[in-house]
């Protein structure tokens, strides 16, 4: 039948009128000419983001946030000066512009009807809609003040913040500088380190001085009272109101800041939770604020986020403990808080009482420490108390003034801190009243009202034994309106899930299970082989390697996260399927709740995974590893996660990993820069100087005097250089800033030298005889994308241009659940080199999009044997030669939950290869061998792992983005 009589398929890309006779032709056309908008992301979304510049009050609504009908756009900020107006609740309301209205098909939001963040003037009076914000900065004679100019500021920033140069080295550098420029009648930028420090100290921007709060002992103590009662304690702190004022006035947050609580549903009318302001807690608190005082209508809700975690500095000179208290606010998006873009700052160093060992378990000493902790926090936060009932006027990131109402919103803490904060007994839950011997049993929700009622009614021993309440502790939240310590404690992914349930429980129990089943000698052999399997894991961008397995003493959070990614395939053949399914269910739960956007479907999946985990973990009870069950506070906390997600949005924005990493810049590095003698004062000064430099840099960027280096577009980022022998495997696998692209792969900046320039010679040089034929077939398909599989012509186009060979390519993609930039963008490097680090070949695997089916059904796995490009008729074709892998079965493996693949071969047993356009590559894929039931050779090297095994797991736990697409 003539081809003209076949019904043709239309291109699905908007604005394209091309038609095709086959699905294959249409798919190739879309991949070639419309970039890689992968269908794998359509089924499990995450790329949408609610507009941040919309200040739109909505009709009064008394319904619960989950039931509100929504009407708003997604991901299209409103352009200034392009507004229509309407009237709602007696206010003129700007509508979205036309570009924003396009997004109504993708999602709908509703802002809070009362506290909707309306702009005002600096006196708090309403302003007409569309009024531009007042000028943030006045014209100054020297915009770089107190520095003389750009060079002096950048040098000070470089010396103090970036390289942390010591004072003697700064003096030596300035002497050398002065000696050299004296020949030109010049002088060095700074006379000495003191001169540099004085100029930094004179920066006005971001200036929040440290203050000291002294806690004196009572006057009537007996002479024989313990030293901890007779000691004076000093608490260093900064005014939290001024700290928040600086945060709100940070133009760096513009576009990543919510001015009102909202409810968001996607195009399927399913609720989604993202940042703190998308949760029910902020909405409910705004209801209470308005009910108490209707004059607060139009104000902006600012939820105060606190975090505390005692940390230890032990470098060279000893063991020193500090207890920093951190502050953030709930309005910046989670990605901003995780990126530490001045959204998390230390506001206090709390006192840590010390005493003799005989008081380690003393009830009175424990109560004293707890109450000192609460009293200190209460005193520090007192400047915020007036603004919790009466709005205060503050300038916001977009330059407008708004009436601000404060509220205690969240507290980030691990379990020991939660016990201290909630005033409960150890091994009880801070969120519910379940008994410690059966935490997963029946129990009501803890509330401030319930605790007040019980403490006013029952004696102390009954409170302690039957309700787990320590009535000797009064939570600091009792001193502030609407605050409930039990409500504001948030999920802690790092300590409760990753380090607690996974590393401390499941990994340890698995080792104990092997010993109980096989005896100590055989169990040691098995665990040694498991370590070899972990060490044999192939390369993957950003994946921490375990060269000797997991046999090291000091575990960090990063170690636990890395082990989670490779542990399941390593133990699969050594333990029963139920134990593997237990770990699989837990990992699925962990990865689901770790996503940056969580919808109703994700909550249902997480609930199913948690139920499966609870059922499968019974193998540890049945085998005698946990004969008393699983009443463990950290593991029990998982049952509260689904409700807390609805309260506070995605947990990754309120994880203790944020405060843990902040310890590095706020405590550990300043301590190393100190003289070690009375180091705290020096550390405070270092923190203050760092804040001033960061604040001034933001100000200079806003004035246009410095480039916004953190706002570069993703496609403006340089592609990777071809550098062999680099000691840091992950030196270019990093979060990046820029606009969102679903997926984009680009070759390295420069081609590799030493390769032949013709196809035939290149094929012979790399020992890939099929390269020439496959490349000509590829070019023919590119030139004739609408031909079906049976319509390929025998007359291949001629390739005469030189061939350029590359050893790497950069994949840029939207992965907000992983470590990424403020817009959720991440970049990783895909390698294909014959000599990685001048030792062994490395050829990474990739996801290749071939169909519009969701997940793995629309992709194949390819191992990149060569990156190259050529020119034909003025068009550059970036390509990759890949070895193909075929899926085993139609569904993932029933035990591990991961897809299995095997090397694809033809009838003669040769590997099936193809040349593909770079645009069909989504990103790197991680394969882990199906090791089988035999041990690995003693000297097995991981560089052979992708060559010698018959089948492989597609590791969906390699990172969170892989978990979202490899289903």
What does this structure look like?
The chain is an alpha+beta fold and 967 residues long. The strands form 6 sheets. Strands 6, 7, 8, 11, 12, 13, 14, 15 and 16 form a 9-stranded mixed beta sheet that branches. Helix 16 crosses helix 17, helix 16 packs across helix 18 (577-593) and helix 18 packs antiparallel against helix 19 (600-616). It is globular, with a radius of gyration of 30 Å. The model is unreliable at 1-7, 35-105, 710-732 and 788-793 (pLDDT under 50).
Question: What is the topological layout?
Answer:
Blueprint: E1 9-10, E2 19-20, H1 23-33, H2 40-43, E3 85-88, E4 91-94, H3 98-101, E5 107-111, E6 119-120, H4 150-162, H5 167-181, H6 193-201, E7 210-215, H7 227-230, E8 233-238, H8 240-248, E9 262-266, E10 271-273, H9 280-292, E11 300-308, E12 311-313, E13 320-329, H10 334-338, E14 345-350, H11 363-381, E15 392-395, E16 401-412, H12 415-422, H13 448-455, H14 460-467, H15 485-488, H16 493-535, H17 557-571, H18 577-593, E17 598-599, H19 600-616, H20 618-622, H21 633-636, H22 641-648, H23 656-673, H24 679-702, E18 734-735, E19 743-747, H25 759-765, H26 771-783, E20 804-806, E21 808-814, E22 825-836, E23 840-843, E24 845-849, E25 859-872, E26 875-887, E27 900-903, E28 913-917, E29 921-925, E30 927-929, H27 945-948, E31 952-954, H28 960-965
Parallel strand pairs: 11-16
Antiparallel strand pairs: 1-2, 3-4, 5-9, 6-16, 7-8, 8-14, 9-10, 10-17, 11-13, 12-13, 13-14, 15-16, 18-22, 19-21, 20-25, 21-22, 22-23, 24-25, 24-29, 25-26, 26-27, 26-28, 27-31, 30-31
Helix pairs in contact: 16-17, 16-18, 18-19, 23-24
